[in-house]
Fold this protein.
Amino acid sequence: MSTVRERPKPLLLPQFCKGCGRCIESCAKHCITVGTEINPATGLVPVHLDLEQCNGCGLCISACPEPYGLRAEPGKDFVLEDPKALFGPRDKAREAARSIPDERLPLPLVEPLVVKGTYAAAIGALIAGCRHFYGYPITPSTEGAELMAKLLPKLQGVFMQAVSETAAVNMMYGCGGAGLRATTFTSSPGFSLMLEGISYMIGAELPAVFLNVMRGGPGLGNIAPEQSDIKLACRGLGHGNTHAVVLAPSTPQEMLDLTILAFDIAFRYRNPVVILGDGYLGQMTGTVRLPDFVVKPGLPDWAVWGDKGHRENLNCSIFLSESDLEAHNTHLNAKYAAMTAAEQRADLFETDDADVLLVACNTPGRMAKGAVRDLRARGIKAGLFRPMTLWPFPIDALKPMLERVRRIVVVEASNGQLEDEMRLAISHAGVHAPPVINSVRRFGGILPQQREIVERVLGFEGKEAAA
Amino acid sequence: MNVFYDKFERHDHGEGLKGQATHYCAGCGHGLAHKYLAEAIEELGVQDRTVAVSPVGCSVFLYYYFNVGNTQAAHGRAPAVAIGQKTANPDSIVISYQGDGDLASIGLAEIVSTAQMGIPISVVFVNNAIYGMTGGQLAPTTLMGQKTSTTPEGRNEFFGTPIRMAELIAGLDGPVYVERVALYDAKQRVRAKKAITKALKLQVENKGFAFVEVLAECPTHLGMNPSDAEKWVKEKMTAVFPLGIKKDVENPPDHAKPGTPEFNPAHLMEVFEGTTEKAPRFCNEFPSGWATDDIALKFAGAGGDGAQTAALLVARAGINEGYDATHIPSYGPESRGGTSYADVHIARTEVLSPASPSPHILVAFNAPSLARFGPTVVPGGTIVYDSSVIVDVPALAKGVKAIGVPMTRIASELGRLVVKNVVALGALQAATSLFPEETVLTAIRQALKSKCAMIPLNEEAFARGSQAVRNHES
Ligand code: SF4
Ligand code: SF4
Ligand code: SF4
């Protein structure tokens, strides 16, 4: 307490007294009494102090709930009119924290690893400098988590199995809020539970990477591969005005590459990033080449690290006043616009002269790639447009093709969730007469297979020819 | 006091009197809990290490006041956020401040699990027996008979009885210190201050999880003046929530702190089991006997037959030779004891479609597998099956070569049934010459890197499998 005297008497600026009276009973000397006059500044009735009998016991001070209510008298020379004079010296001059930049350390050229998709993502996270994993086991994402549990302790990292996905995402909020790289591996029902936390993270502008190895739904559904959460990730990241870059790998290699990219994007925009895989991809073993670097993360200036430099920082999604919240949303919208402009990614296969454009992502993207080969062998000029970002949908790459292709066939292991994203993007791009859009959809854990895609496309084409 | 901001800039932009007054109602217990917490931070000299987690509830705006690192959590999740903060920076002092709705209702799972983990954070739990922020509804700690806006006739058995968090938390193994205090008179306030300071000190000393339940007054929703509210807490609340120390571990050991994360690339490579050593190549050209660019294989058997391992070894052999290869297992309940099958593709440049609905090559370990997948093998394809257990061969497509090898018998002759799949690989080798023999053997040796003693046995199994096919063909 800012005082030089041993037993100071209490002091009260009436405008900071709420008149609660808690101090009255604390004083054995009956120095404090209920006030009688309304304070014009507050409209409240502050207590009255008569300190003649006061022995400076201080009990009234510790009974006052207001930080600037009753306090110890600071000495004789303060000016009562200026409340500032009551407070001790401030360390206002202290330097705010400066961002410590990330470093890229060279990784010796390693022979390709032969690992399954979830492992590739886990290794990608480690390469990207992530040393904090918070999660809850759920099939079919668990194996990646198990690898993290094995590897993180060897790197002095933290693997924490939370009590639920709800807790896990909030641990990520805490860790991401401290400016570090946090991740989780989950699957559809678990991802649903995390949405609350993701909304808070977006509101508070905190980075983290969520790998959702999607499975069949709704409800408990099954554990077979489905692209069941495209809608959720692209349109439904919890309540409010939320968006996050949604990446869709289709090979174990991309599980690694896109996980590394995800951390970059998450910290660039201070926003969560969602990687959508599918159970098939998670289980698939393939060749995975490592990059020639590993990331040693720095510490951003906005982190709530718990040290002096970062002390002014606050992670919070509350904006009580309407105008503040509107301004915050305008700011978020600007970030979403920047992501939309800069983060669209797509893989094009045989699209240059394609008449029939298959659109597919994740494992169906691979099946569709095989189908393109097959269709071309049968004389149909097919191509594949494979979105690698589902939000933002890579419309800039698709749009020019819309004028040229005759037919779009959306191939997906869902009830049209990818097609909806595509249609929305086409509509927002102002294309009002797109080519015919057909769909090949399987769900329940059944993936559209190459042969089925080929047959369906041939069917669509035949129908058209007959018409 | 430095731990409170000199001006509450975040309280309505610090305008007017709000810049130095709290948002709490007159006489609210939160203000006192704040004050003692601030004093404790100051006395322990940890302001520059502290992160306070604000909850949802009346104390949601705790971050208006405390000049420390601040983070605000979703309803009930403060302990989880605290774990995230603490594990990110184990040297920080993390305080999770929660009310009764936040901690004892919506956030029960978080607080109980965090307490049980014993992570050194300090929890200040303000229990005022009512929901303040949302306007006076039933709290899990509301007393029997107490009227709230959602129990207008008073709390009855239908809503259960009030939950005693301090006792519940003290019953867990994790916490080192749990105490319930109150604020209703000078003596209790001194105790409250001491308890909060101790809870913080235990964290500063890295001892463990500490929990202080503060019985506080909510005059507003009790519909009383603060002095009557104090009386109510003293008479009514303490009867249900007895004050005192509930747990106080003597000389708790230091809590194990996570180390400093490591980013050394060489160490990382070791952890990934990466190698700079190139696998030797023995193959001169892509084995295009089956398909020009992309060969599909299927391995099928019962769980335990080793179909997955055999499949992985073939994929690995393909990758060693510089081709693209994939392996995808069947998984899920069907792989637990039932059929286990694996699809492998080996492609000249890129595997497009990794499933093998119509394989060029099938390895079948049991009769159901052969019956199911045999007919899917493309015309001109090859099947290798375990003739120790399979008697009937189903109708196959034109030109499909089916070779029975007594894999189980050979493996049992070798004394280790587990090498059955390596016998199969040997048979596959002789039947298809997919890759040079050394390619497959290299992949097998790679896989047994850590079990070198097993290599001779596996080599023998491989040779016996090959021999059986050659005998069959001669
Ligand atoms: S310091 Fe003690 S004696 Fe003086 S007014 Fe306060 S409580 Fe009464
Ligand atoms: S305790 Fe503080 S706020 Fe309450 S009446 Fe006394 S001086 Fe005023
Ligand atoms: S409603 Fe109750 S708990 Fe909330 S600020 Fe007012 S008195 Fe305090």
